[in-house]
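To make this tangible, we now present a fold written out as tokens:
***
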Amino acid sequence: MAFHLRLKESMKTKNIKQIELSRMTSITPSSISDWLKGKYIPKQDKLYKIAACLEVDPNWLLGLTDNRNLEQPIYENDDELIDNVNKIPILGTICAGDGVYAEEEFEYYMYVDQTTKADFALRVKGDSMLEAGILDGDIVFIRKKSIVANGRIAAVLLTDSNEASLKKFYKTKDNVVLQPCNSDYEPIITRDVLVIGECVGVYREI
């Protein structure tokens, strides 16, 4: 679950409105509004104030732990939390089924630990990668690459139709084969393809 969704959930649980959270933390209502819309994440000092006010673990707000309970005091000079976070933009939808027109559209930032080496993320539409554990609605983390090894899952652009697709990538002597991981779908065999990057992780909102 993304930061802005956890913030909304925590405010609802505590029955705290935006204006009340602003008053209790001395944070401007416009900043809180932007966070709730998923535009930004608060800096460390403001994150700690919000977490303390809502009585939740700041790591939980960032999606770094499943334990929401605040088990220890929050210290504003504790740099470990923010230092261990990567900021990854979600840039729209990619096809894992029928064709999806490729158009970059920023949704919001996700904050993940530094073990996730990705440049951006895309939301999956379709079930053609079902057997690889990638479901409709999942978010895939993409590392920018112009070349990927055969058998790897790649985000590609079909240049003849301007469709973005997520498939297993195989390069042959004459063509590229984009192999779905669902027996209900046929492979795509083409020369008109541009590799965007390699899938390095999957996130599922619960």
About this structure: The helical segments are 3-14, 18-25, 29-36, 44-54, 58-61, 80-83. Residues 3-83 form a domain with the 434 Repressor (Amino-terminal Domain) fold (CATH 1.10.260.40). The longest strand covers residues 85-95.
